[in-house]
Write a structure and sequence with these properties.
Layout lengths: L2 E5 L12 E7 L6 H11 L10 H8 L9 E7 L11 H19 L15 E7 L2 H9 L4 E3 L2
Parallel strand pairs: 1-4, 1-5, 2-3, 3-4
Length: 149
Amino acid sequence: MNGYCLFEAGKEKDLIKDNTHIVRIDGREIVTVDEFIHEIAKQLDFPDYYSSSLDSLEELLNDLSWLNESQFAIIVRNYSFFLCEEKDLARKTNLMNLLNDVAEQWDNVPNYPGEEDFRNKAVFNIYIEKTPATVSELEKLNISYHEAK
């Protein structure tokens, strides 16, 4: 099951699986949506045509064909600081929902006829350090999650 997954602080290494491309985000350093977009583009080596918008981010997160791995994970530590300086709360909400949508789309390939011709079903998870504030925010945003084992 793809999507948001909460993990206990200090157990990040337990999340790492073979053949997984991991994006590591430190919430203390990524405090706006623009910083997140820039960092994920760098860590995923987005193609030159990437336009640094949420639409372009969604398009490329639903592709990732240039990467060798067949599983993908975004690991966010220090979540209480993550996007904390983003002034446009709707944009933050849109990003959080976009990541959830991308994870669901990878889990449900094919999402439309012919999609299986160019992409396979894949694991795509967003791991967030578990705190009471994390749980509260995800519930407030109406985003479902599960806990890492």
